Amino acid sequence: MVNITKWSGLVATVASLVVIVLPAFFRVTHSQALTSLLVGEVAAIALAHSTYRASSGKQAVPLSIAASVVAGLLLLVSPVLLSPFDPFLTLMLGTSLVVLLGAVLSGVDRVRGGEAGRQTGAQRLAGN
C-alpha cells in the first residue's frame, strides 16, 4: 500500500501543478483563474507533504489529507460552476479527479496502513 500511496501522491501532485498553469492556455474568467491558482497551490503543497511522508516511512498528517481532499473537491466543482466550456472543463475534471484520488488514497493509507507504512524506505528495501 505504501508504494501505491507514494506513486499516486506523486502523480496527484503533478496533476495539481497542471491545474495551476492550465488557465494560462485557455480564456477563462478571472475567478476561475484565481480558483485554479490558489486551490491548486494548496492541493500541491498538501499532496507533496503527504507523498514525502509516505516515501520517508511515516503516515500522512490528517490535516494535509483533509486539505487535499477539500482542495480536490473544490477543483472538481469549480469549472462546472465558474467556466463550463468544453476543453477546459474536460481537462479540469480529469486533473481534479487525479488530485482527489491521490488525496483519498493518502487517507486510506493513514487508516489501513500497517507496519510497512511505518518503516523507512531503507528498512523496506532491506526486508525485500
From TrEMBL:
Keyword Transmembrane on entry: yes
Keywords: Membrane, Transmembrane, Transmembrane helix
Domain of life: Archaea
Membrane-crossing residue ranges in chain numbering: 7-26, 32-48, 60-82, 88-108
Protein name from the UniProt record: Sterol desaturase
